[in-house]
Write a structure and sequence with these properties.
Low-confidence stretches: 256-311, 490-501, 628-642
Structural class: alpha+beta
Helix content: 25-40%
Number of strands: 19
Number of helices: 16
Strand order of the largest sheet: 10-11-12-13-14-16-15
């Protein structure tokens, strides 16, 4: 009969082979990745915006020229007189920005068209027989945009109807470059003419996407080739299983039974609190000094499990009473992609106790220098922000091989959970409370934006992930912005890879969603989105990738707040929707400006929201929440019933 090791080896080889076969035979899939889709949506939205802006400029120019007295007078003359007026300077009809101007008239009752002049002289005419309207054509690497408007003659209005056309080129090279940069190939088409986008493969499958900014203009985009959908986890797992199976097979045949013990992981028991050997390192951490030695992790019986500096904080061992440096763990709060978070307390003389929240970086990430830089940057940046509306960083350090951030503990709940609860119960947030919270968020972020380095130079911090889940409201009514884990700053060790998009797409400014450079107005946009949810009770999704088909006009495609809630001041419609404008130039300059607008509404309508008012509201909402996870400085703390 085969030995157990050999049998296990054979099973592992069979399973591993099946996993490898599944991985290498799985068919390829088509379509774009999420990053490509977002980049394409942003590039299309930008092109749409460029065309729309060019169209608006041409319309404004034509409308302005058509009302000039000398233009209206020239319509009732003849071509020679109109030319003399231009030469003599009476008719200020000078083209600009590469435009072509054309003036003409239609003889009433005959429909005969008299073309009086075109500037610059000798240019191709684009007046379309004087038919009023908007036109476009692709020619010479440009989209020629034309607007034909009516001109009311100053004299002989019973004989003639005047017209004026303005044509301006939009260079397609720069306009289409973002599409090329996004990896898109195809062409921009209008009728029988087109402009290429990249190198279009012959016979490639394509799809069409009309542009809302100009009727008839459409993108013909080449569908990406099939992408190999090789499931790496299955492949790597399969290879690993085969290797292990071969080893087990060999070991089983040789009869080395003890080899099986090498594959198990044994938990190290933790002595009860207060017993010898419970402390995981005694060294106190120091802000931004992440080379602090520790005494190591005690092994059972109190012996050291390695040389000093080799200790590991094992998440499974950090139960109540365990020590993280000088802090005693009360309980585990939760876990994220980069760290586990614990509620802990420091004890001092005279019965002094202080609760803190401690982030412990996942051990496997400590070997990734980019992840370490990212983790440390969060603490370094947040530690430079000193404001009551930002969660304070109290310590940063390294215990053994593990990095930790010690933060202010906030006993309360994150705003997302409160808003979810109020929506479910159809309880609108009191307007004074909603605007009070919004104003405090603005204050905290403005402090972050204005934070300076020790030498006084601006840090240029931008949060980049402002959302209700990253706003905490305590039982005492304080409001605090948290989680600068993906913040962007002018001075930091870790940098976002070009084209990499971080944050929450549903609350993200368009320029951030497509990977462009961002400034404080990206945070203004996200704060306004949170404000919209606060005052209307409606959740929003502003993901550019899912809204690109709606176009830039009327962005963010949300109903006016006052239409969703009776009694809401109409001023908030303009304030919030303006702050979520697609073009960052149209938004308030910073969070301080947005906060001032909200404060003005509160004063105008006699709305007051003190910390006590917020505390009463939070207390009432917490009483209505289920006794499940309620939230605190990490959003994961179980609070006792109120």
């Amino acid at each position: 009969m085969a030995r157990p090791g050999a049998v296990a080896g054979a099973v592992a080889i069979a399973l591993g082979g099946a996993a490898i076969a599944f991985a290498v035979t799985r068919p390829a899939t088509g379509g774009m990745s999420e990053t490509q889709t977002a980049a394409m949506a942003g590039a299309i939205a930008r092109l749409d915006g460029d065309i729309r802006a060019a169209r608006a400029a041409v319309q404004e120019r034509a409308s302005t020229l058509s009302t000039i007295l000398f233009v209206r007078t020239a319509v009732a003359t003849d071509a020679k007189t109109a030319a003399d007026q231009v030469t003599g300077g009476e008719l200020q009809f000078a083209p600009r920005n590469g435009e072509v101007l054309e003036l003409g008239r239609i003889v009433r009752n005959t429909s005969a068209v008299d073309e009086l002049m075109v500037q610059p002289s000798g240019s191709m005419r684009h007046a379309h027989g004087g038919a009023v309207g908007s036109y476009a054509e692709i020619a010479g690497g440009a989209l020629e945009i034309t607007e034909v408007v009516k001109v009311d003659p100053r004299y002989n209005a019973d004989q003639y109807t005047g017209f004026l056309s303005v044509t301006r080129p939009l260079a397609l090279g720069p306009a289409l470059q973002p599409l090329v940069d996004a990896g898109i190939t195809g062409k921009l088409a209008l009728g029988d003419s087109s402009a290429p986008i990249g190198a279009m493969r012959a016979g490639a499958a394509t799809r069409e996407q009309p542009l809302a900014s100009q009727p008839g203009v459409k993108l013909i985009v080449v569908e990406p080739p099939p992408r190999a959908a090789l499931p790496l986890p299955a492949l790597v797992g399969g290879i690993g299983a085969v290797v292990i199976g071969l080893l087990l097979l060999v070991v089983g045949r040789l009869g080395h039974r003890e080899a099986s013990a090498a594959t198990g992981i044994h938990a190290v028991p933790i002595p009860p609190p207060g017993a010898p050997g419970t402390q995981l390192g005694n060294a106190a951490t120091q802000l931004s000094q992440h080379g602090v030695p520790a005494s190591g992790t005690p092994a059972p019986g109190g012996s050291m499990a390695g040389a000093p500096g080799d200790s590991q904080i094992v998440a499974s061992n950090l139960g109540p009473g365990a020590m993280i440096g000088r802090w005693e763990v009360v309980r585990r709060l939760g876990s994220g992609g980069m760290a586990d978070v614990y509620l802990a307390q420091a004890r001092g003389d005279g019965g002094f106790e202080k609760l803190v929240a401690i982030k412990v970086m996942h051990g496997h990430l400590a070997r990734n220098q980019r992840a370490v830089d990212h983790f440390l940057d969060e603490a370094r940046l947040a530690a430079r922000i000193h404001h009551p509306n930002v969660v304070a960083i109290q310590d940063l350090g390294k215990i053994g091989n593990d990095y930790v951030i010690v933060m202010e503990y906030v006993e309360g709940v994150d705003l997302e959970r409160l808003l979810t609860s109020t929506r479910a119960g159809q309880r609108p947030v009191p307007l004074a409370v909603a605007l009070g919270i919004l104003g405090r968020i603005c204050d905290g972020l403005d402090a972050a934006h204005r934070a300076t380095a020790p030498d006084g130079s601006p840090l240029g911090i931008i949060h980049r992930d402002v959302k209700s889940a990253n706003v905490l409201v305590s039982r005492q009514g304080s409001v605090k912005v948290v989680d600068f884990g993906i913040a962007k700053a002018a001075k930091q060790v870790h940098y976002t890879v070009a084209g990499e998009t971080k944050g929450t797409p549903a609350m993200m400014a368009p320029e951030q969603r497509v990977g462009d450079q961002v400034d404080v107005r990206a945070d203004v946009y996200s704060v306004a989105a949170v404000g919209y949810e606060l005052v209307t009770g409606q959740a929003v999704n502003l993901d550019l990738a899912s809204l690109a088909h709606l176009g830039v006009e009327n962005w963010p495609h949300l109903p006016q707040p006052s239409s969703l809630r009776a009694g809401l001041p109409v001023e908030l419609d303009e304030i919030l929707l303006h702050a979520m404008a697609f073009e960052r130039e149209r938004r308030p300059a910073d969070c301080a400006a947005l906060g001032a607008l909200c404060e003005a509404v509160m004063k105008r309508h006699n709305l007051v929201a003190s910390d006590k008012d917020l505390a009463r509201w939070v207390d009432g909402e917490l009483r209505l929440l289920s006794p499940a996870f309620v939230g605190d400085s990490t959003g994961f703390t179980r609070l006792p019933p109120a």
